[in-house]
Amino acid sequence: MRYAETGFNLEVDLTRGNIEKVATDPRDTALYLGGLGTNAKILWDRVGPEVTPFSPENLLIFSAGLLCGTPATGCNRTILSTISPQTELMAFSMMGGFWAPELKYAGYDKVILRGKSEKLVYLWIHNDTVEIRDASHLAGKGAIETVEEIRKELKQPKAQVAAIGLAGENRVYYASVEQGRSSASRGGIGAVMGDKRVKAIAVRGTKDINLADPEKFISLCTEVLDYIKWREDNPIKGVMTILQGLGSPQEMKVHDEKWHTENFMWGNSRTRRKGFWNEEIEEAWTDTLEGARTRLISCFNCPMKCGATISMPGLPTYMMKCFTKLTYTMAAYSDLDFGLRIAQKATEYGLDGFSTPQVMAFALELLEAGILKPEDFPGLPESNEDRFFYLLDMIVNREGIGDVLAKGTYWAAKEIGNGAEEYAHNTIKKHEQLPLKLSMLNPIYFLMYSVGEKINITQIEGQFPQAPFPKREHREKFCEDWIQVPHEKFKQYFIDWELRGENSIPYYPTVEMTCDIVEWQEMMHYIDDALGQCAGLSSFPLKPPYHIHNYPKFISAGAGIDMDEEKLSDAAKRYRTLVRAVNIRRGMRRQDDRPPENHWKKRFPELEEKLLDGYYQLKGWNKEGIPTKEALEKMGLDYVAEDFLQRGILTEDETADVQTETQTQ
Amino acid sequence: MAGKTKEKKIVKTIKIDVDKCNGCRACEVICSAFHASPKYSSNNPARSRIRIIREPLRDIYVPVYAGEYTMAECAGRDKYTIDGKEYDECSFCRASCPSREEFKEPDSGLPLKCDMCEGEDEPLCVKWCLVDALTLEEREEEVEEQEEMEDLEIGLESLADKFGMQTIMDALARMSKDDKSKK
Question: What ipTM does this complex have?
Answer without folding.
Answer: 0.95
